[in-house]
Amino acid sequence: MKNPELAALRKAIDQVDQQFLQLLGERGRLAQQVGAVKQAAGEVNFYHPDRESEILRRVMADNPGPFSSEQVAIIFREIISAGLALEQPLQVAYLGPAGTFSQIAAQKHFGRAAVLQPTAGIAEIFRLVDSDQARFGVVPVENSTEGSVNLSLDLLLDYPLQICGEVQLRIVHNLVAKVPISTVRRVYVHYQTRAQCRQWLATHLPQAELVDVASNAVAAERAAADADGSAISTTLAAEAYGLDILVAGIEDNPENTTRFLIIGKIHTRPTGNDKTSLVVAAANHPGSLHALLSPLADAGISLTRIESRPARSAIWEYVFYLDLLGHCQDAAIAPVLDVLAQQASFCRCLGSYPRAVF
Ligand SMILES: O=C(O)C(=O)C[C@]1(C(=O)O)C=C[C@@H](O)C=C1
């Protein structure tokens, strides 16, 4: 039965889509022209995270509704990603194989037009970016339940790369398998994931053998090949390996979030919504760390994170990873960082970068 009201609305949607299509084409042509200008100027890297974060923050702020601001950001994220792909393909290395949270984080940050390169480990990401085999890398650096990913912190110090972005991803863990939970004898699980689901496992699968694997996606791959096996993995990986979601959302902490860093060789410009990450060493005498941090406090600079790690240069020597709000070029930040650098026995800026937008 024809509904004239529905037909009229669909006609109006078609007209809006046509306008959309024209504007999308115009935006793509402008991106191509921007790419040509960059090419002529001899720019090597066409990706500008500072500009992208400003666009995304603006459209979220100007969003008239009814879509949520996050949904608007997701749509514009893909438009920008497609625009950049018209200018220059973007190779991004992440902790693979396909289906890991790192892949989801990479797509959240760069959009689906980026060319993603799965790696077997975090160290390979740093190596690929350092050797220009990938332009950027996405590395997990801390989880809200389990704390820091120490390997990422150590490699940030070992490699001369810059942090040029961050992504926050709500981590939802699922028990996936080809068989019902009653027949599960083994659970393939990454060690970080195992820690984030410790209570659930102890309550619901206390007898199951827990098998450590290199990533959440490898967990799904192994479970798919094991008649009594299951995995804790992502929805993406479960689909990829033909597994059913037996139980969704089994992480112990309902706010379970992982923060990923974008590593590369570029420096960003201030956007007014930035973070700066440093690694410092205090001289080995009482009160030296306090003396190091007090200029930040005196200047009213917000520290969002401080983490100590063995310096690996001598036993019981430590370095401190500091995250603070602001860009190293900000007028309020630059002079304080100079003081800090003078007082520290070691100080290196790992990068200033736009804060995660959504
Ligand atoms: O403004 C630029 O530099 C562009 O390349 C355009 C654009 C965009 O689509 O808006 C695309 C990629 C960049 O990372 C930033 C912005």
Sheet with most strands: 6 strands, mixed
Question: Which regions are unreliable across 5 or more consecutive residues at pLDDT < 50?
Answer: none
> For the record, what CATH class of the largest domain applies?
Alpha Beta
From the alpha carbons, calculate the radius of gyration and give it in angstroms.
23 Å
Layout of helices and strands, plus pairs?
Elements: H1 4-40, H2 49-62, H3 69-87, E1 91-95, H4 101-110, E2 115-119, H5 122-130, E3 136-143, E4 147-148, H6 150-158, E5 162-170, E6 174-177, E7 186-190, H7 191-196, H8 198-204, E8 209-213, H9 216-224, E9 229-233, H10 235-240, E10 244-247, E11 257-264, E12 274-281, H11 288-298, E13 303-310, E14 318-325, H12 334-343, E15 346-354
Parallel strand pairs: 1-2, 1-3, 7-8, 7-9
Antiparallel strand pairs: 3-4, 3-11, 5-11, 6-9, 6-10, 12-14, 12-15, 13-14
The structure holds prephenic acid.
Prephenic acid (PRE) is lined by residues 31, 34, 46-48, 51-52, 55, 80, 83-84, 87.
Domain Prephenate dehydratase: 91-265
Subcellular location: Cytoplasm
Domain ACT: 277-354
